[in-house]
Specification:
The chain is of the alpha+beta class and 838 residues long. It is built from 18 helices and 47 strands. Strands 1, 12, 13, 14, 15, 16, 17, 18, 19 and 20 form a ten-stranded mixed beta sheet that branches. Strands 30, 33, 34, 36, 42, 43, 44 and 46 form an eight-stranded antiparallel beta sheet that branches.
């Protein structure tokens, strides 16, 4: 567009005039330049924009401006005492590694690569992106899971492009796959409260900037791997989350585009960013359009041999084959409203032989692909169909995709609800298309899904056209009613409330999410435990585990049926079908009375090596009677009657509350605690109880009676002594704490903390003392809990204490149950005649 190009050219020219003589291009005074704030982050985005402009126009002045910025950054942080780490705001400022890599590839300037490697070292004290990626740590569990870190991850791609070292590629792919499994919402949007939290069902804000970063990351994944799954993700996010973030008028973008709620202009949601004269200018308003501009990076690509068509919507494209031959493509279609797509090829230099690869979306049924209205082929969902031939100008290729309605059942916060799609389009309830408000929304009747009727608004009139939906779907609902659903991008554009998580009847199970072995793990001999998320949806009856060779289309080599628990141990007999050195992928199928569903893509991968030790050896996640995770009488010994003792570095026996000798254990404080495996899945409801006698109170710090801390703002439950008071606390993204209850040294107390849904209650001697609201679902990566200390924190949170009768359960105890546990020291609360311990 010549007008747009002229406007941008003038803008860039004016921008370049604002650069200081030393190369600085930012708003801060000389004393602060590049040393604090988010100044390196600002320079990073300026460099990205100018490098993109240079790539498309060849503007040498833009490239020179980037070099001057990079030279100043190198003078500031290379060969001196300062490090980029010292600038603070690590995930933001360290993202400069991405633009430095791009600039190095263009210029070959050695100091840019040197600084990249110095930032790589600093990562270890910040986001630790390389090491956590290689270790298979889920992205939400890394030290810096905020959205800005996605731009640091792009630095891994640059390091791979420059050095060719596989570790960078491996770490990047792991993080992308982890985000997709755990934190990409059904709208295609990424983030909950501006970061990864480990749940696609969480209801926090889905920020536009976060989704744009996810799109940019997915473009890199597509370029890096050529996997159709990455293109599927780009399509989903573009057509739903991205277009849903822009108002049809084009005037504003949202900050938050929630699954359920309202659309608000970012100028209202993040008004703190407003400046005089530009009240609507903020991060999301300027970043949002990039979601649409990124189409030029992935719609049609070349792969070294020929063309790769990812975008299935209408468009015209001019590009060159790897040998320089110009090609023009035109797509005539109403996709995504219609499943018929017609591509026409034009060649300026006459016939040419090359392959064209057409993406067949993963959600589609096998697709019919027709050449020149004659020869037909069938494309497999989630793959590319390659057509290698001598192409002529005027050749046409037609794709026929089935746009059937499909569902995704929710879990956790979205339990009992579904997302409904037509092709790539997420559907949503909107007040303006229905005669009832959101509180009266009936449950969709999924048994009548085939009766849904699709319509397309026609000739709505010039005034209404701006806000008209793309399509409407009349969906049968409970009690013979009907709910009209529209496309997610149009939902809420009139200021009305909308919902895309919809109540429903006859739900299939929610898709499991694989946990162990971690992606890229080595599986060795003996028994290896495979684990996935526990269901919270009663529509599930059993699981199946399937294992396939990673690079073959053959059927599964291992299939285990009728599994009733969300884990299974693969023994030597089952492993006989695995070939040494071979890579495999595994999948879980959840089955229920209303259908079955596969685990969330992408499937986890492992390599079988019979000479190596398994990353995850045999473990059990079976609960004891009463949903017990750990039960330890602590009668002079920390060994549990149920559960697994991981370590007990120093303890002695002591008299218990009844005075009987050796009926308790004693920890003297420094370096002593009892650590147990947290094998049950904490989520909504759980309880802990223990008898406690303080020997001393910590001064100027806190001490842990019980803690399951896994990292910053990740402790599903802790009972803490601080300032001679007892607290029940929880950390899940933020901290939650009861008020303190005074306790005395030398006195026995029975203490319990019970999380029941949205309530956390602290009990002392059987009486409820404090109750606070907490998140209904707690997302944790904790794998251990401790008495007398913190299982993972290297600092001093130890407690000098005597302990007896410890129980941790994966359910909420009633007040009466807590009173019974506190009422007498005998007999023991039973786990029955059975026990299991390690």
């Amino acid at each position: 567009h010549t007008g747009l190009r002229s406007h941008l050219s003038n803008f860039v020219a004016q921008l370049l005039t604002t650069q200081a003589e030393d190369g600085y291009l930012g708003p801060f005074p000389r004393s602060d330049r590049l040393l604090k704030h988010w100044d390196l982050w600002g320079h990073y985005h300026l460099m990205l924009g100018l490098l993109t402009w240079h790539q498309h126009t060849g503007d040498s002045a833009a490239l020179n401006t980037c070099r001057r910025m990079a030279d100043l950054i190198c003078r500031t942080y290379l060969d001196g005492p300062r490090r980029v780490y010292d600038a603070g705001s690590h995930e933001m400022n360290m993202a400069i590694i991405h633009s430095l890599g791009w600039l190095y590839r263009l210029t070959g300037e050695p100091k840019y690569l040197r600084l990249m490697h110095e930032i790589e070292k600093d990562w270890e004290r910040a986001g630790d992106y390389l090491r956590t990626g290689l270790a298979g740590v889920e992205f939400y569990a890394t030290p810096r899971p905020r959205w800005e870190s996605l731009h640091d991850l792009q630095g891994l791609v640059e390091l791979w492009r420059i050095t060719g070292q596989a570790q960078y590629r491996q770490a990047f792919q792991h993080h992308w796959r982890s985000i997709l499994r755990w934190d990409r919402h059904p709208s295609g949007g990424f983030s909950t409260g501006e970061q990864a939290v480990g749940s696609p069902y969480a209801s926090g804000p889905i920020e536009t900037c976060c989704t744009v970063a996810w799109l940019a990351l997915s473009v890199d994944m597509l370029r890096l791997t050529g996997e159709a799954l990455a293109a599927d993700e780009l399509e989903l996010a573009t057509l739903n989350a991205a277009l849903g973030a822009q108002h049809p008028s084009g005037r504003w973008w949202t900050y938050n585009t929630p699954m359920n709620g309202v659309r608000e202009a970012s100028a209202h949601s993040i008004v703190f960013q407003a400046r005089a004269g530009t009240p609507e200018l903020n991060c999301c308003a300027v970043n949002g359009p990039r979601a649409l501009g990124l189409l030029s990076d992935w719609a049609v690509m070349t792969d070294g041999r020929g063309l790769v068509i990812n975008w299935l919507g209408p468009g015209q494209f001019s590009l060159r084959l790897p040998d320089g031959t110009p090609v023009q493509l035109r797509s005539d279609t109403a996709y995504p409203l219609s499943g018929h797509i017609r591509w026409t090829i034009q060649l300026a230099r006459g016939p040419a032989q090359f392959p064209i690869r057409f993406r067949i979306p993963g959600w589609s049924a096998p697709a019919r692909v027709t050449l020149n209205q004659g020869e037909e082929r069938i494309g497999s969902p989630g793959r590319y169909l390659e057509w290698l031939r001598l192409w002529h100008s005027g050749d046409t290729v037609e794709l026929e995709l089935e746009l059937a309605l499909r569902i995704r059942a929710g879990d956790r916060e979205a339990s009992g609800q579904v997302c409904l799609y037509r092709g790539p389009i997420l559907l949503a309830y909107d007040q303006r298309h229905n005669s009832f408000d959101e509180p009266d929304l009936p449950a969709l009747d999924l048994s009548r899904l085939a009766e849904a009727k699709v319509s397309f608004p026609t000739n709505p009139g010039p005034e209404a056209d701006l806000l008209a939906p793309w399509l409407l779907v009349a969906m049968p609902a409970q009690g013979g009613r009907s709910v009209r659903l529209c496309d997610f991008a149009s939902a809420g554009v009139a200021g009305t409330r909308y919902r895309s998580w919809l109540p429903a009847l006859h739900l299939p199970p929610p898709p499991p999410i694989q946990r162990l072995p971690p992606d890229g793990a080595v599986v060795g001999p003996g028994k290896t435990t495979f684990r996935w998320t526990t269901r919270t949806n009663a529509s599930l009856s059993s699981y199946r585990l399937l294992i396939w060779p990673l690079t073959e289309d053959a059927g599964p080599v291992v299939q285990l049926n009728n599994l009733t628990q969300p884990w299974v141990s693969l023994d030597e007999c089952a492993k006989r079908s695995l070939q040494p050195g071979q890579w495999y992928r595994w999948q879980v199928i959840a089955q229920g009375p209303y259908g079955q569903v596969a685990s969330v893509e992408p499937a986890l991968r492992f390599r079988y090596d019979p000479t190596a030790r398994s990353v995850v050896e045999e473990q059990t996640w079976e609960l004891g009677r009463g949903a017990v995770i750990v039960e330890a009488p602590l009668r002079g010994d920390p060994k549990p009657v149920w559960g697994t003792l991981q370590r007990a570095p120093g303890y002695t026996n002591a008299p218990g509350p009844d005075g009987a000798p050796a009926s308790a254990v004693q920890l003297d404080g420094p370096e002593q605690m009892l650590v147990y495996a947290l094998t049950g899945e904490l989520g909504r409801d759980y309880s802990v109880g223990v008898w406690v006698r303080l020997l001393a109170t910590p001064e100027g710090r806190l001490g842990q009676v019980f803690s399951a801390w896994a990292g910053p703002m990740d402790d599903p439950l802790r009972i803490t002594i601080q300032d001679r008071r007892l607290f029940a606390r929880l950390e899940s993204g933020q901290a939650y704490s009861t008020a303190g209850v005074p306790v005395k040294v030398g006195r026995w107390y029975h203490v319990a903390a019970v999380k029941a849904g949205t309530n956390l209650t602290l009990y002392v001697d059987g009486q409820a003392c404090q109750n606070i609201p907490v998140p209904e679902w707690v997302l944790t990566r904790s794998e251990a809990c401790a008495l007398g200390g913190n299982p993972r924190y290297p600092g001093n949170e130890f407690l000098a204490v005597q302990l007896a009768r410890f129980t941790l359960a994966a359910r909420a105890w009633s007040a009466e149950e807590v009173r019974e546990r506190a009422s007498a020291f005998a007999p023991e609360p039973g786990t029955g005649s059975s026990s299991r311990s390690r």
